[in-house]
Amino acid sequence: MAEIIIRNLRKTFGDFTAVQSSSFKIEDGEFFMLLGPSGCGKTTTLRMIAGLELPTSGEIYIDGQEVGQRPARQRDIAFVFQMFALYPHMNVRKNISYPLISQGMSKRQVTEKVAEVSRILGIEDILDRPVGGLSGGDRQRVALGRAIVREPKAFMMDEPLGALDAEFREHMAEELRALHDRMGATTVYVTHDQLEAMQMGDKIVVMNHGVIEQFGTPQDVYDKPASMFVADFIGSPPMNFLRFHGQVHPGASSVRMHHADLVIPSAREPFEGDLVYGIRPEHISLTDESDSRGEVVAAEYLGTTQIVTVKTPGGDLKARVPSGQTVRSGEQVGLTFNGMTATLFDNQSGRALR
Ligand code: ATP
């Protein structure tokens, strides 16, 4: 097990900065997600922690030891890739035992370890099969087996489920999380899939263009997004944004937007300028009483709820309402916002006003 501390970590490739000064802490035993769009620097960050890439500057502490410039083999970290890097000519047993044999472990110990790991992963009955003919899921289990068999301090996983189809991916995500809960080893996991990050992670770092936008629990990043980028990247459909010019005062409990007063959580810093009122779809309800009105332009049925798109003077809004509520395209509806859950952003910087 390991606690990992990242301090002012930076990586440049020539003139290009892939990771800007990043700092965060991964607690011992945590399932930690690096989340962001393609090219934001997730993999580079992960590779630096694993020792596959050396930082341009900054420090990496694993259990209190600074290892930033040390080679991978001195860090005792296992790396699990997306493309199940297995030895195709070997059977499952040999693939899993290979790291132990190359460490010089005795034959009896190797047999015991492989038996234990294959029991944990439920692959005892395929140990003698060549990996070439296995399904994607079984191959991924073998790759995991090879990573966990040597009991490293931590696991680095780069989109490990990326090559699986959607349905199986969800199943493997649950399996992986259950495996982690049983073993308790610190795991750093790269994904661009916000749902996967929210479902699996204890903590999430959200990255964009090499910069950490926010670091927190899934609930923190969903309920209290630090920036418009996070509010938009997390949640499906994402947070609604209503843009307006106005001012907020410390302690104020509402803002004047267009012709309506909108409730906001109080105790804000004073601010005047271009504001954005951010509200999640599930915090908008459609009622007849409200003065804020709009026209229904679409409704998407999702089982117990539906996503209703309403055209308003401030732009289109998406509301998540019970699917039992009858709405018709073209009809006028009133909108009520649960303002205590809203977030105000400075439109220029994109940062949340706190
Ligand atoms: P993806 O999910 O697409 O892999 P990512 O968030 O993991 O994205 P990185 O792979 O860390 O992103 O890459 C961040 C940026 O650094 C990208 O623009 C990439 O092209 C660049 N980059 C990564 N490795 C190198 C390298 N060895 N040389 C030059 N540029 C690189």
From TrEMBL:
The family database entries (PROSITE patterns) matched by this protein are listed as:
ABC_TRANSPORTER_1, ABC_TRANSPORTER_2
Q: Which compartments is it annotated to reside in?
A: Cell inner membrane
Task: Extract the InterPro entries matched here.
Answer: AAA+_ATPase (IPR003593), ABC_transporter-like_ATP-bd (IPR003439), ABC_transporter-like_CS (IPR017871), ABC_transpr_MalK/UgpC-like (IPR047641), Mo/tungstate-bd_C_term_dom (IPR008995), NA-bd_OB-fold (IPR012340), P-loop_NTPase (IPR027417), Transp-assoc_OB_typ2 (IPR013611)
Protein name per the record: ABC-type sugar transport system, ATPase component
Q: Show the SMART domains listed in the entry.
A: AAA
Its family remark reads: Belongs to the ABC transporter superfamily.
Q: Gene3D superfamilies this protein is in? A: 2.40.50.100, Nucleic acid-binding proteins (2.40.50.140), P-loop containing nucleotide triphosphate hydrolases (3.40.50.300)
Domain ABC transporter: from-to ranges:
4-234
Pfam families in the record: ABC_tran, TOBE_2
Membrane-related topology note: Peripheral membrane protein
Mind listing the UniProt keywords for this protein, alphabetically?
A: ATP-binding, Cell membrane, Membrane, Nucleotide-binding, Sugar transport, Translocase, Transport
Question: GO CC: one term?
Answer: ATP-binding cassette (ABC) transporter complex, substrate-binding subunit-containing
Q: A GO molecular-function term, please?
A: ABC-type transporter activity
